[in-house]
TrEMBL record:
<dbReference type="Pfam" id="PF03853">
    <property type="entry name" value="YjeF_N"/>
</dbReference>
<feature type="binding site">
    <location>
        <position position="127"/>
    </location>
    <ligand>
        <name>K(+)</name>
    </ligand>
</feature>
<dbReference type="Pfam" id="PF01256">
    <property type="entry name" value="Carb_kinase"/>
</dbReference>
<keyword id="KW-0521">NADP</keyword>
<feature type="binding site">
    <location>
        <position position="59"/>
    </location>
    <ligand>
        <name>K(+)</name>
    </ligand>
</feature>
<dbReference type="InterPro" id="IPR030677">
    <property type="entry name" value="Nnr"/>
</dbReference>
<keyword id="KW-0413">Isomerase</keyword>
<dbReference type="InterPro" id="IPR029056">
    <property type="entry name" value="Ribokinase-like"/>
</dbReference>
<keyword id="KW-0547">Nucleotide-binding</keyword>
<feature type="binding site">
    <location>
        <position position="440"/>
    </location>
    <ligand>
        <name>AMP</name>
    </ligand>
</feature>
<keyword id="KW-0630">Potassium</keyword>
<keyword id="KW-0520">NAD</keyword>
<feature type="domain" description="YjeF C-terminal">
    <location>
        <begin position="228"/>
        <end position="500"/>
    </location>
</feature>
<dbReference type="InterPro" id="IPR036652">
    <property type="entry name" value="YjeF_N_dom_sf"/>
</dbReference>
<dbReference type="InterPro" id="IPR004443">
    <property type="entry name" value="YjeF_N_dom"/>
</dbReference>
<feature type="binding site">
    <location>
        <begin position="412"/>
        <end position="416"/>
    </location>
    <ligand>
        <name>AMP</name>
    </ligand>
</feature>
<comment type="function">
    <text>Bifunctional enzyme that catalyzes the epimerization of the S- and R-forms of NAD(P)HX and the dehydration of the S-form of NAD(P)HX at the expense of ADP, which is converted to AMP. This allows the repair of both epimers of NAD(P)HX, a damaged form of NAD(P)H that is a result of enzymatic or heat-dependent hydration.</text>
</comment>
Length: 511
């Protein structure tokens, strides 16, 4: 699903009104009706006090329409107008008139702190103060109102965006952003819903299709894309019946050191569970028996050194080389890595200490084959590209870095971002149970397994991240966040594929 910027959304609005010959008030009615339906479906007429806080722009206009529809269905609604400005949008004004005609209980005008209403624990708050029109931080009593709502124990539903959250930059005043339990957003998710520093304001998120112009939406170049099941499935290559294991490639995993051979077991298991035809590992001598007993399906080659990798002597013509897990940063390992880089011509997958070696030896990056995939977590990324001021600055710095070295970067996190030149793919699967030792090793094995099966490295990264997260979700269902371990993610890869290929699911853009 495409993620659009505020100005792209505004353009889509205009084109839609033109092509469908509807007014902006009609579009507001349509958008807010969708919100009403969602609320009504969940509350089923319940006798809950609903407090709708409306700004005086179009986000506030949406709030007024939602309130009107709720009142028409006999909900207990109280409307508050957050009078942050004397300017009112035309659609706000016409809906203000409509709600005044409907009920004797007129909206309450809030002009300062003294006007704040009581918000009780069981209240249902609708935040329709600001949406994508926010262009400066909240100030004074309006900022205090947001803080006041946040401090209440009420359930908060944000309309389009939590008020105070910018669509294109990070808000500096943490207290002046609504912390929603749920956000119903129009037509497209916003990039800030997925950034580590802003995602917590959004709560659960659902995208409402408000029928913006199809042709415009399909042609426009997005700022990023959310990868849900439908997008992941479109990347899947079905297997030909008439195939043999040679068709699915050969993965070479190079890694491990004394006490850290487990990371290679995890990555290699994951590569085979993802469908690699053959997997060979290259480990220090101490890893020989561990590998042979824990993963008989893999072939094992060893270094001359017992504890660490010092010389990667192999002429194996693998389809992909995965390097780094548990490998350490000894001088002799760095030399061996440099030699491996020089002789490898096909894209590689680099993780963990492989990344740290690059951070300390920048000159080695020039030897990395084009289209290689790096899989840092934020700390590894920071060592690689330096500090950033905020998440938007980080995105810019990653894009500069991949342009320079022609790479793909998989930035791991609660929402993993895959960067290629000019594009960002944001994953929708995964859960906090995956914050467990070794789940990153599994991911590098998954991506390597897909590259060996001739997926383009970019698609291997995007699909691999999706399937890895899905397998994590399946593992959590079976064993809970606390009880799952990273080996489960490798073991359940088959179920993640089955889920991807099953017929009975339709939800696009998210899971
Ligand atoms: N396709 C869609 O998605 C549809 C979208 N619709 C809805 O429209 C919403 C966007 O509405 P909007 O453009 O009127 O902006 P909104 O967020 O209400 O802000 C209002 C004004 O506030 C001002 N202002 C800004 N910051 C401020 C501050 N800190 N403190 C004080 N004032 C501040 C600024 O005006 P300024 O003062 O700069 O002139 C701004 O223009 C969108 O989120 C969605 O809910 C649907 O109705 C139809 C389909
Ligand atoms: N809260 C979370 N939600 C979704 N995925 C997560 C979460 N926490 C961690 N993950 C995923 O788990 C993996 C952790 O990788 P990494 O930090 O390299 O761990 P390790 O070094 O232990 O292998 C990444 O793929 C990351 O996206
Ligand atoms: K809002």
């Amino acid at each position: 699903m495409k993620i659009l910027t505020a100005s792209q959304i505004k353009e889509a609005d205009k084109i839609t009104m033109n092509n469908q010959e509807i007014s902006s008030e009609d579009l507001m009615e349509r958008a807010a009706t969708q919100v009403f339906k969602e609320i009504h479906e969940r509350l089923q007429g319940a006798d809950i006090p609903i407090k709708v806080f409306c700004g005086v722009g179009n986000n506030g206009g949406d709030g007024l329409v939602i309130a009107r529809l709720l009142l028409e269905h006999s909900y207990k609604v109280k409307v508050f107008i957050v009078n942050y400005s004397d300017k009112r949008s035309p659609d706000f004004l016409s809906n203000y008139d409509k709600i005044k005609n409907l009920s004797n209980d007129w909206p309450v005008l809030l002009k300062g702190e003294d006007d704040f209403p009581e918000i009780a624990m069981g209240d249902f708050v609708v935040d329709a103060i600001f949406g994508i029109g926010l262009n400066r931080p909240l100030e004074g009593w309006v900022a205090k109102l947001v803080n006041f709502i946040n401090k209440s124990s009420a359930f908060v539903l944000a309309i389009d965006m939590p008020s105070g959250l910018f669509s294109d930059k990070v808000s500096e005043e943490e207290d002046a952003v609504i912390k929603a339990n749920f956000t119903l957003t129009f037509q497209t998710p916003k990039l800030v819903f997925f950034l580590p520093s802003t995602m917590d304001y959004v709560g659960e998120m659902q995208v409402l299709d408000i029928g913006l112009d199809r042709a415009f939406l399909s042609e426009i170049t997005p700022s990023a894309q959310l990868i849900g099941r439908q997008e992941a499935r479109s990347l899947y290559n079905p297997r030909n019946k008439n195939s043999h294991k040679g068709n699915f490639g050969h993965v070479l995993v190079v890694g491990g050191s004394y006490g850290k051979i487990g990371s290679v077991v995890l990555a290699t298991t994951a590569s085979l569970r993802t469908g690699a035809g053959l997997s060979t590992v290259f480990v220090p001598k101490c890893g020989y028996e561990i590998m042979q007993t824990s993963l008989p399906e893999a072939m094992v080659m060893t270094d001359e050194n017992y504890e660490m990798i010092t010389d990667i002597k192999t002429d194996l013509d693998a389809d992909v080389v995965c390097f780094g897990m548990g490998v350490g940063r000894d001088k002799s390992t760095i030399v061996a890595f440099k030699e491996l880089l020089k002789k490898t011509k096909k894209p590689m997958v680099i993780d963990a200490d492989g990344l740290n070696i690059f951070s300390e030896n920048n000159e080695l990056l020039q030897y990395l084959p084009e289209n290689s995939v790096l899989t840092p977590h934020p700390k590894e990324l920071q060592r690689l590209i330096g500090e950033w001021t905020d998440d938007f600055d980080k995105i810019k710095k990653v894009q500069d870095f991949i342009r320079k070295y022609r790479l793909i970067v998989v930035l791991k996190g609660a929402h993993t971002f895959v960067f290629e030149q000019g594009n960002i793919y944001i994953n929708s699967t995964g859960n906090p149970g995956m914050a467990t030792a070794g789940s990153g090793d599994v991911l590098s094995g998954v991506i390597s397994g897909l590259i060996s099966q001739k997926y383009e490295p970019l698609f291997a990264a995007v699909l691999g991240v999706y399937l890895h997260g899905k397998s994590g979700d399946i593992s959590a269902e079976k064993s809970s966040y606390e009880g799952m371990i990273s080996g489960d993610i490798a073991e359940n890869m088959g179920l993640a594929f089955s889920d991807l290929l099953s017929e009975n699911k339709t939800n696009p853009g998210s899971d």
